[in-house]
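wait is this the right file?? whatever heres the structure
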């Protein structure tokens, strides 16, 4: 298995250790760690989420294609992570991976992580939650 980390700047509400990591809905791993990092100077907060991904679960070129065992190779090809809602009833979330070639990679570890970082894509869930918090509740 491969280890990776995704840094989120917003809420990860509903995410839990053991939550599925999927690639376009196909389970390829799970969340194995959730922490909180606070910058002592600015008090800026980010949430590193540790992932375990099955080695070789993502292939390029189909069944006989090359299995990529390097997270940095996939990140260079556009691998991005986003928080996705698993259930409206429970509010549980998971991590979904996808290849988004041409999407800028914003790395937040600044080279300080011991495991490869998968950049977080701004997702529709974040945008929706922001919109919901601005709605007037009468």
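ok assuming it is, sequence goes like this
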């Amino acid at each position: 298995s491969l280890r990776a980390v995704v840094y989120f700047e917003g809420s990860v509400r509903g995410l839990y250790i053991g939550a599925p990591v999927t690639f376009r809905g196909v389970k390829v791993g799970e969340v194995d760690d959730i922490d909180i990092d606070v910058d002592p100077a600015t008090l800026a907060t980010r949430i590193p989420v540790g992932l375990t991904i099955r080695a070789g679960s993502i292939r390029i070129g189909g069944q006989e294609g090359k299995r990529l065992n390097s997270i940095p190779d996939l990140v260079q090809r556009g691998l991005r992570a986003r928080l996705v809602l698993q259930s409206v009833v429970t509010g549980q979330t998971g991590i979904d991976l996808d290849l988004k070639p041409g999407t800028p990679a914003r790395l937040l570890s600044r080279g300080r992580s011991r495991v490869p970082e998968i950049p977080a894509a701004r997702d529709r869930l974040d945008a929706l939650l922001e919109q919901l918090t601005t709605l007037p509740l009468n």
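The chain is about 10% helix and 35% strand. so i think its the right one actually
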